[in-house]
Specification:
Blueprint (H helix, E strand, L loop, with lengths): L12 H13 L6 E2 H8 L5 H12 L3 E5 L4 E5 L1 H14 L5 E8 L3 E7 L5 E7 L3 H5 L1 H10 L4 H22 L7 E5 L2 E5 L4 E2 L9 H17 L2 E2 L8 E7 L5 E7 L6 E2 L5 H20 L10 H4 L7 H6 L5 H13 L4 H15 L11 H5 L5 H5 L14
Antiparallel strand pairs: 1-3, 2-3, 4-5, 5-6, 6-8, 7-8, 9-11, 10-13, 11-12
The structure holds adenosine-5'-diphosphate and magnesium ion.
Family: Belongs to the protein kinase superfamily. RIO-type Ser/Thr kinase family.
GO molecular function: ATP binding; metal ion binding; protein serine/threonine kinase activity
Enzyme class: transferase
Length: about 400
């Protein structure tokens, strides 16, 4: 389910209308009847509509579904991707799309560029993808049978990520610059740094350690717990100083798991974030601190601001938060932190925890950011379809 923009220039204005209609129809139809697509597109159910439908089906943006009651089409992830790319192009957020730099369980990360050629990051949320990957989850999915819920939930994850990134950025937290959001996608600035996971040695682990823990505390003072604060979601830039030392500048990413300090399990998530950092510094750098904590109760004693409440009042409502929360729980979506814990459980007793998990899923969960993707022009007009327009 990789983004493939190769065919986007062949999509005619009429095709876009029909694709949009298929999307609208799929909000309340698992299979959108062809006459409804025509009606929503505002086109007469004639040759035009059928030509568009067949064009769209040929490039996999919609898929024909034969149903007991009627035939129709459903929007595919590819179709949703194209609609989002189309909107980003129209709003001049994205001009071209380049290499994929990461594949998560619930997202794809690509380099993209704006019209000025500035490199950015496109994150495509793909909730529900895991459901199709594992037999067990697939059974659950079939049992729940929530039509088009992957589409809606992926959008919720993108909205949540974008709203929190905006709020955090406003308060000067070290996060990427949020540049745009459409459907299940978020566009943000590209951070020229490696995930901490890939850093083998640091000159002074104590100061980076202290900085990361103080970030967890500062987040709590703003009403928030990252919920997935670990070596995958902390990008560390190594910046040479004039005095010859190298300073390490962390940037926090990946916000769909963010929880409010009023969440019933807030303290658990706070402690887990702290434990992730402690464990990583111990294992990787052999660094342990004698100081206990930080503790949730202390961190939330003096609140500076309630970003959790602020975001709730903006684009990501309480209702949306709840829906996403329930879905993630039901589908066992637990971020990287859950993986790390499971990883270690598996290490300890020498066997996989979930036999239904396909081989290689763990490795695939986080493809490291290759430096070459950052420094070299990712948008090579000769090998990528590049421009979307
Ligand atoms: P997931 O939810 O799949 O874990 P993340 O947002 O954590 O997605 O991104 C996955 C990986 O993609 C990160 O570990 C990082 O290597 C890379 N990445 C994500 N966002 C950026 C960014 N803004 N700049 C540079 N690399 C990024
Ligand atoms: Mg991540």
């Amino acid at each position: 389910m990789k983004l493939n923009v190769k065919n986007i220039r062949y999509v005619t204005p009429e095709d876009w209308r029909v694709l949009t209609a298929a999307e609208m129809g799929s909000r309340n139809h698992e299979v959108v009847p062809t006459p409804l697509i025509a009606q929503l597109a505002g086109l007469r159910s004639g040759n035009g509509v059928h030509r568009s439908i067949s064009n769209l089906a040929k490039i996999g943006l919609i898929a024909k579904v034969k149903n007991a009651k009627y035939d129709g089409y459903r929007l595919t992830y590819g179709g949703l991707d194209y609609l989002a790319m189309h909107s980003h192009t129209k709003s001049s957020t994205i001009y071209s799309v380049g290499n994929q730099i990461g594949v998560g369980k619930e997202s794809d990360i690509l380099v993209c560029a704006n019209e000025a050629g500035k490199q950015q990051v496109l994150k495509i949320h793909r909730l529900g993808r895991i459901s199709f990957r594992t037999v067990k989850a697939n059974r659950d999915y079939l049992r729940n049978r929530q039509s088009a819920s992957w589409m809606y939930m992926s959008r919720l994850a993108a909205v949540k990520e974008f709203e929190f990134m905006k709020a955090l950025r406003r308060e000067d937290f070290p996060v990427p610059e949020p540049l745009g959001q459409n459907r299940h996608t978020v566009v943000m600035s590209l951070i020229d740094a490696f995930p901490m996971r890939q850093i083998s040695t640091v000159g002074d682990p104590a100061s980076l350690y202290a900085e990361l823990l103080s970030l967890i505390v500062r987040l709590a003072q703003y009403g928030l717990i990252h919920g997935d604060f670990n070596e995958f979601n902390i990008l560390v830039e190594e910046k040479p100083e004039e005095d010859g030392n190298v300073s390490l500048i962390p940037t926090i990413i990946d916000f769909p798991q963010m929880v409010s300090i009023s969440h019933p399990n807030a303290e658990y998530y706070f402690d887990r974030d702290v434990a992730c950092i402690k464990r990583f510094f111990d294992r990787r750098f052999g660094f342990t601190s004698d100081e206990p904590g930080p503790f949730f109760k202390d961190a939330t004693k003096t609140l500076v601001k309630r970003l959790d409440v602020e975001v709730e009042a903006s684009g990501f409502s309480k209702k949306m938060a709840k829906e996403l929360d329930i879905y993630m729980k039901e589908h066992g979506i637990d971020g990287d932190a859950g993986d790390i814990e499971r990883d270690e459980d598996a290490d300890d007793n020498g066997q996989e925890i979930d036999p239904d998990e396909p081989l290689g899923a763990e490795q695939e969960a986080e493809t490291p950011l290759d430096k070459s993707d950052v420094e070299e022009p990712a948008i090579d007009p000769s090998d990528t379809p590049a421009a979307l327009a």
